[in-house]
Batch of 3 targets.
Target 1
Amino acid sequence: MIPRIDDHILSPDTQTVLLLCGRFGKERNDANPLTDSEYNRIALWLQKQGMRPADLLDEAGQHLLEQDGLPAPAFRLRSLLERGTAMALAVESWANRGLWVLSRSDQHYPHRLRSRKKPAPPILYGVGEVGLLSDGGLAIVGSRDVDDEALDFCRTVARSCARQEVKVVSGGARGVDTEATISALEAGGSAAGVLPGGLAKAAVNGKYRAALQEGRLVLISPVDPGSGFNVGHAMQRNRHIYALADYGLVVSSSLGKGGTWTGAVEALKHGEPVFVRSLGDNIPEGNHNLVKMGALPFPEDSWTNLTEKLRRSVDNSVLQGQLVQDHLVGEQQEEVGERSDISPLRTAYDAVLPTMLAHLEQPLESKALAELLDTNTKQTQAWLTKAVQEEKVKKMQNPVRYVADGKGP
C-alpha cells in the first residue's frame, strides 16, 4: 500500500521529524533545520529519555527542552517545532504533485536503508510505488559523460533486467543513470531512482508519468523536493543506491574522482557486491582499478538468468579469495616449520554456519540474524540462501523468517 498524503495527514512522529529537518520553500525562520547528524543525536537523546519524536510536541516534551545536556540549543528546537503552518502549506503543495513523505519511524520506510550501519536519512520524500524500494535489483551507475559504447551496454543490460523482472536502481543523473532507467521502463520493467534534488520537477516530468501511474517506478530523495542539484547530496545518495539493490554495476568510472568512483569504493569497503563493465575497446581506467580493489567483471552473457549468474560470481569470488588465503597460510606454516596437522581455514560460509545455526534455534528474520552475526544483510542473505539449498535451514513465510531444521552442519 502506498503511503498517501492526499489528506495532508502525516504520522505524529513524521510531523515532528519534518519540522526539525525539513525545508519549506522560502519561509523566514531564524533557525536552520537540523542536519542528518544533528537529528541523529536528537534521536539518540530521545531514546535515552524513553521518548519518541512526537513527544516533543506535547507539554511534557516541551518541558524536557528546559533540561541541560540537549544535543542542540533549546531555542533552535522550539523555533523549528513552531513551523506548523509552513509545514502544512508545503505538504499540501507536495501532495498536489503526488509526493509522499516518510520518516524512519514509518512502517513503509525501506528496510534496506535501515539495515545499513550508517544511520538512514531521517526523512525521505518520494513519488510512485513505495513497495519497489524493498525489491532489491541491480544498481546501474556511471559517469555523466560517456561514449556510445558505454551507453549501448547500459541500455542492453537495462532491457535485459526488464525482461527478467530485475528492478533497475539508479541515481537520475544525466548519462548512464537516466539511460538505464528509461531503457528499463521502455522495455516494460521497473525502476527506482534516488535523486540528489529536484524531486518535485521529476514527479511531473512527462518521461516518467506513465511508469509512475502504472506502479513501475519510484523516485525518492532525502532532501527537500524543491531543492536543486548539490554535489554533496549527490555524493551522499550513492550509498542509498547500493543499499536498495542486491548488486551494483559500474558502467563507466573515472579514476580516483567523481561520484561514481566514490560510491563504488565505499560499497566495496562495506563488502557489497560491485560489478564493472570490463570488456570493450574503451574501458575507462577507473573500471580496471575497481577490479583491482575487489570489484567483479560483469558476466559476458547476462541476457538470461542474470541474478543467478551474479550470485555465482560473488560466491566464486569469496571462495577464490579464501583459497588464496589458505595458500598463503600454508606457505607461512612451511616457513616457520609448522606441521601439517594444523587445520586449514574454512570458507567464510563454513566458518559461520555453526554460529548461524545456533542463532536459528528460534525463527529469525535475515536482518535480525545479520545484527547477531555483525555482518551486512546482503552477505547474511547469501549464507541463508545457501543453507536453505543445503536443507540445513528452513525458510518460513508470512513473515519471512529462517530456522535451523535440526540436521546440523
Target 2
Amino acid sequence: MKVKKTGFWENHRWLQIILAIAGVALIVNLAKDTLKLFKSAEKLKSAQQQVEELEKEALSLMEKKEYYQSDEFVEEEARNKLNMVKEGEIVVILPPNVKETLGKTELKQEEILPYWRQWLNLFL
C-alpha cells in the first residue's frame, strides 16, 4: 500500500481562499490608490494653471495701478474730462453732432464757457 503524500497547500484549502481574497483586496486597493493619484495629478496641474493666470492678472493690475498713479494719467484725465490746458495751448471743443455739422456748409461757432462754468456744469 502506497501512501499518497500531499503538499502543504492541498491540506489547507481555507488558507488558499484567504490568500486569494487578500490578493484581490490588495489589487483593488492598489487600483483605487492609482486612480486617486491620477486625479490628484490632474487637480495639481489645474491649480498650477490657475496660479499662472492669477499671477498674470496680478501683474496686469500692478501695471494699471502704476499707470493710474502716474502724472501722465492725471494730465490726460485733466485734458479730456475737465478741458484743462497747459499755458499757451488752446482748447477746441467740438459739438456733439460733429458729423452732421461737418456735412453742412455753414458752421456755427460755439461759445466757450469760462472754466468756473464748466466745473459747475460738470457737477450739477
Target 3
Amino acid sequence: MSGADEIAVTYALELKAAGHTTSILLVHTPAKNDPLVARLRAADVPLNTLASTAFSASIAAGRKLALRAMRACSPASSLIRTNSRKLVFDLLQRYHGACCEYLRRHRPDLIHVMTPDPGAVMLIRAAHETNIPVVYQEVGIPFHPPGFEEVYERFVSVLPLCAEVAVLSPRLGQELRRVLPQLAPARVLPLISQDHNGASAPNHESDRVIFGFAARLEHLKGPLRLLDAFRIAHQAHSGIELKIAGDGSQRQEVLVASRRLGLTEKCHLVGVYLTLKERSQFMHDIDVFVLPSLTEGTPNAIIEAMAHAKPIIATAVGGVPDVVTEDVGLLVPLDDIKAMADAMSRLATDADLRRRMGLAARKKYEQLFTPCVVLPLLIDFYERVVDGRAAGHGGSESNNGQRRPAKLIHPWSIVNA
C-alpha cells in the first residue's frame, strides 16, 4: 500500500461515485488481501492486470534476492541495485505489445499515471503509440529519495510523451520545475481525502496526551527518530503516549528501541489499519499527529489527520509546508530530534493550542482536500486534456470549437498563478 496506490484508488472511487466510468490497470497482480483492492471491488471499479501471476511472483522473488545480496555484500550494493533495476526494466518492456492491445481494445479517453517506475514507462509508451493522452502526476519529489536517481533519469525520457504533468502542491511544482526545467510548468491537482466525519475529540483524561504516527516503518519515514524525540518529551511529561500504525523493515528495530528506552508501556504498535473505519478510529483516538519523514510529497496521513481535526507536527520537507502552516501545526527542521521533542512538549502542555490548531486543520482540509472541492478540478483537468488532444493542441477549446468555461479556482491555483 503506497501513497500513490491510495491516491489512485481514491480518485477512481470518487470519479465512479460521481457517475464516471473508471478502471485501474496494474502491471502486476495485487495480493489477494490488499485492502485497496477490496475497496475497488466493493465499489465495482474494474481492476485489470497485464502480467501473469507467475511473472509477478518471479519479479518479487528477484527483488528479495537482490536485497539479501546487497545486505550481504554492501561494497557491491550499488552495482547490484543498478543491474537488478535494469533487468526489471527490460523485462517489463516485454509487455509493451500486450499493453497496446489492451488499450486498443478498451479505448480509454485518458490515462493517469502516478509512479515513475518501469511499468509506467512501458504504459506511457504504449499509450503514445495508441494515441491515448496520458497525464503523469508526480506524487513525491523528483529524484528523491536518494538512490533512485537512475530510476527517474530513465523515466524522464518518456515525460515528453505525456499530454500534461501534474503535482500535488505548489512547492512540489516548484521543485519539479527546478529539477526538470525542460518541462512545461506542472498543474496542481491536490489529494482527495474522503471525509468520514471524524472530527470529534478523543475521550481520555486531560493529562493523557496521545501522539500518533501512521506510515511505513522505514528509515525515510523516521520512526526511530520519533522514538528518540518521544523519549525526551516523556522525561518532562510522563502522561504522554505514542501510538504507531504501520509496518515495514524497521518494525523490529522500533520494538527493540522502545524496550531499550524504557517506553514499552507508553509506546503502542497497533499494526496496519486495513479499513476506512479502522483509520478513522486511529485518528479519533490520538490528540496530535506526528510525521518525522526525511523526504515527502504530500502525505496522505497528514491530510487524514487534518480531516479529523488533529494538530500536526512534521518535518519541513517536500510539500509538507504547503499543508502544515503555522495555524495548523508545528514544522521542525529535518533530522532535528530536539526540535521534534520541543514541539511535542509544547502541544502536550497546551490543550487550548491543540484545540485551535485542530480546528484550523479541519478548516484547511475542508478548503483544500474534500471530494466536493477537488473532484470538479480533476474532472475539468481531464476534460481539458481530452479536448486538447481531440483538437490537436493543448488549448482550452472543446471539440465543437467553443471556448471552455474559465478554469475552476482552488486556493492553490491562486498561489501557483
